[in-house]
Specification:
heterodimer, A: alpha/beta, Rossmann fold, 3 domains, five-stranded parallel sheet, two-stranded antiparallel sheet, 15 helices, B: alpha/beta, six-stranded mixed sheet, three-stranded antiparallel sheet, 14 helices, 43% helix, 12% strand
Chain lengths: 285, 393
Amino acid sequence: MRERLEATGYLVDDGLAVACFLALKLRRPIFCEGDAGVGKTSLASAFAAALDAPLIRLQCYEGIDASQALYDWDFPRQLLHLRAAEAAGVTDADRLEGELYGRRFLVARPLLRALETQPCVLLVDEIDRADDEFEAFLLELLSEYTVTVPELGTLRAESPPVVVLTSNRTREVHDALKRRCLYHWFDHPGFARELAIVRRRLPGVTARLAEQVTGLVQALRTEDLVKPPGVAETIDWAEALDALGATEVDAELAISTLGSVLKYREDLERARGLDLAALLAVRGA
Amino acid sequence: MTGTERGASAEDRAGAPVDVPAVLVGFARALRAAGVDAGPDRVQAFLGALDVLRPGMRSDVYWSGRLTLCGSRDDLERYDRVFAAYFGGAASEGRRLRAAPPPRLRMTVRDAGPAPRARVEGERDAVPTAVLASSAEVLRHRDFAGLTDAERGQLRRLLAAFALRGELRRTARLRPARRGVVDPRRTVREVLRRGGEPAPPRMRARAERPRRVVLLVDVSGSMAAYADALLRFAHAAAHAAPHGGGRARTEVFTIGTRLTRVTRELTHRDPDTALAAVAAAVPDWRGGTRLGELLRGFLDRWGQRGMARGAVVVVLSDGWERGDPELLAAQMRRLHRLAHRVIWANPRKARPGYAPLAAGMAAALPSVDSFVEGHSLAALERLAAVVRGAGDA
């Protein structure tokens, strides 16, 4: 499992490898928590690439409900169909209604699509943004992998999809949902692993630049920042510097590109006050 | 977790395979004793996971247990500790250990919950109505700090009838309504139901929901006279009946020398049990106040991720800051940018001759939308009105 994930350019540690293995074996969803930018969402895409399956993504938001997540009826087409039938002089109302609620007027939203696509990876992103009711609904769906459309009957997934749920911990997700899942907490990676991730993601960047950037970000994380940078920011920064044609960083260059790592004015000011040259020297030496 | 990675990668055998399931179930029991909520279904998942892995392999046991038995970040720390103790060996040591939560008390049904919008002067218990009504009127304006024990008891009953809900805001969700835009789904249904006869169009409109309310209750020494009453107020507020179908939970934190989230503790319906749970959870009663630092903790850990975003945030404090007022001012500015409205309720504001001179208070004021009193029942009523968005101070 690990090799297959790493082949897609996504580096996993022991825990995550076990989690992915179990998710496949036991058909349990993985519940990912951790700070923003540590690779929760990209796990799903790596998973999809490793399984060579499509990734179906459901972005949660406040007020999301079943018709936006599961399925909906295509009303304009239904109306059009009614009109056409009328013009053709069809009088059999029962048959007409039966046609109206047929599969061809059903618009499959991500969850239904995930049940119908085999195999696939379903990413339920930022579940903590949705409301409790939606969570309860999802719980039901994830335990049975069936959907009942009143007009059509029950649709069942032949083999359940691989499900990745992510949460940013803006609120506690209900325990009943978590119990159904494998729980994995994402930490910021250590220097060696983060460096490996950067090298893997940006093969064109020089070794020296990658090392320096990773070292700087690791140092910045220990500072008292409003928003400590994630791995995604490290990659962004290295990419930005590379785009500027840099093969290594000095303090001046670092400061002028800080905007790709730190997204708060307070943090920027703080970082400018730091002795970046000294930080660079520590890693560079 | 860095320490455990090292321990887990070592491929040593976890003892002689005597009765593996019994050992593992015993491990789960030890976890429960340490406060991890590892119920039978989780244990089953754990055993199921080990079925497909190698139960003799230490790292597999470690990770499958961690993935199936834990449910939150707080659990991980306890898990590492229990794992190290139970299976022996080098797991992360020297971390700050947290005590297991005290056992939960179960209450018999004592009251069926406060009536959602009951008047504060409502009759309760066996106290003759007239007596209670008149003394309630007096109590309404009394300062909490100067109450006798009997009056406090009465005050508790009055506070129990409180509801606090945020200002309404429109959501993205559409609900059937009398006015609004045409709802094609229900219109088509109606037309079909009538066999194609034209029907008046059905409408839908945006649903409304109350905003989330976040209460930050100061429990430091200088607030000692008020903390109990304010927490009871918070308890009643957290139990406000859901409104308009949606349920926006009121979140409650205590601040003092530490920030503690007590929303879960306050879910007990009985106020006394809830307050006992809060008392057990809050380690810093009557300590000093480091408002700025704690506010930053709140924003880093919860607020910025979304809890304060678009919410009505109420700080119940006297603004007596022991730390750096400049930090408090900066964090209040941050809070103000995140929240929909920031309300500061200060019990000392009602005192004659009060001026916001305490360094913390003066620093915070520019970022506060409403500055209200918080010393009496009447003041809290007013606070509830301000939170609802009716009338401003």
